[in-house]
Amino acid sequence: MSAGYSRRAFLRFAALGAGAALLAACQPKIVEVTKIVEREKIVEKPVEKVVEKVVKETVVVEAKAAAPTVKQVRILMASWAMDEVPFDAAARSWSEAHAGTKIIMESMGEGWDTKVMAQIASGKLDWNAAGIASSASSSLPTWVLSGMVQPMDDYIAVSKEMGAAELLSDMLPTLRKASTHDGKFWGLPYSYENISFNWRIDHFKAVGATEAPATWTDWLQVAQAIKKWGAEKKIFATSFIPDLDASLGAMIYSALDNPFGDDMLLRWDTPEAISALKTYKQMVTEGLTPPHGFDNWLDAYYAGRLSSVQAQSSRGVWGQLAFGTDKVMTSQIPVMTKGKGAGTAFWGNCTSLLTKAPYPQEAMDYLIYTMGPQNTGMQQATIKSGKTPVYQSAYDKIINGDPAYGTFKWMNAMREQVDRSMSRPFNNYFSIMGSVYAKYIVQFTEPGASISAEEVAASIVKDTKAEIAKQKK
């Protein structure tokens, strides 16, 4: 009999024994008690005395069931992440291998963070970890600076899970740095995304283009050609998405070696940023994009009426699933000037340990088991979802080492672009700036709008700083 089989047999036997003990504990218990059933007063002159007649009676007393001994490690997770990769299946398999501990995955509901912070303040927390937070974005810094999450370093160091020892050394340095603050590691990513150029190979080929545009000038030229070619079918040549990091933010990244100023905001006052705004508006004005640069872009994409979109790298895989791997390609974003720029905006999709978590080590062990470099199945599922892996070994063994994953070799280019990228400042300023930008980009691209690129840039900076000052009060 194999050692594995013997262990399973033992676990089954132990489970049966435990179940029998628990069942016995729940059964009614027969108890013999002494009970006063009658009290009689006898008067004997000159002495009065009370005689008590006592009998024994058998009664049934319900015994309380023994308290459960299984540790319930509850983890909050964004529903989209659980839809993409098998967190639930990993929770079941980990729990089966760790008697006495059960991982419970729960989808985040509205207001979950407020409830978690209230429980942390009260000292009684129901959950142990939460995801997804974005490193190199605003959400992980917000979680860290608010005190909602705790460092992971000590729990990783003592974990006995396979993959724990290699977890941080195998992680891409840029991703590891993005989750590090004050010398501590705060968020374990299962994948990352960056902004990429996702394009229809067949549409581009129809106008003689066989490669993605390298510069903004190339982008404009091929977009103008595609507009003419696809006019009858009302095809949009290109598009952005509404998010700052995927639209003007990505363009500013691609134009400047250091996209952030001393105020920790994007450098909107630079000639490169102004040029990005003007190029964006030209595309909208010429009808190369949907209205405002992004209206209903996804519907147009799936309807086959959008030839390219600057968006998250996973959107290219979405297109491949819809139209075929021979029809859609994911490439690096165009830059203002060849050889310049800070790569592209990126972020890791992270899970963090909550402050005062009741079972932090067990939660950390599950996260390592699920997201660590040793879990090939999870790495493969991540790649197939269109998200890019965070470990060097995944590139060596899967993307570049397994012919079945040859269609995902474009992820090497995404990695190269992220390797030379720059994390956002560790605060929520970018998120504030994104909200302000959303208002002004619509005003800027309205038909007949008279507001200039310089005025838009100045307004974004002014309003963002005002909101930051308000939050500091």
Any chance you could write out the topology, listing elements then pairs?
Elements: H1 3-26, E1 29-44, E2 47-61, E3 71-77, H2 79-84, H3 87-97, E4 101-107, H4 112-122, E5 129-135, H5 139-145, E6 149-150, H6 153-158, H7 167-170, H8 173-178, E7 180-181, E8 184-185, E9 188-200, H9 201-206, H10 216-229, H11 248-255, H12 271-285, H13 297-302, E10 308-312, H14 314-323, E11 328-331, E12 346-354, H15 360-371, H16 376-384, H17 392-399, H18 410-419, H19 429-444, H20 453-472
Parallel strand pairs: 3-4, 3-5
Antiparallel strand pairs: 1-2, 5-12, 6-12, 7-8, 9-10, 9-11, 9-12
Helix pairs in contact: 11-12, 19-20
Question: Major beta sheet, specifics?
Answer: 8 strands, mixed
Tally of helical segments:
20
* Count of discrete domains: 2
* Number of beta strands: 12
**What proportion of the residues is helical, as a percent range?**
40-55%
- Portion in strands: 15-25%
Q: Mind explaining what this structure looks like?
A:
This protein has helices spanning 3-26, 79-84, 87-97, 112-122, 139-145, 153-158, 167-170, 173-178, 201-206, 216-229, 248-255, 271-285, 297-302, 314-323, 360-371, 376-384, 392-399, 410-419, 429-444, 453-472; strands at 29-44, 47-61, 71-77, 101-107, 129-135, 149-150, 180-181, 184-185, 188-200, 308-312, 328-331, 346-354. The chain has 473 residues and is an alpha+beta fold. The longest helix is centred in the first third of the chain and has 24 residues, at 3-26. The protein starts with a helix and ends with a helix. Residues 1-61 have low confidence and may be disordered.
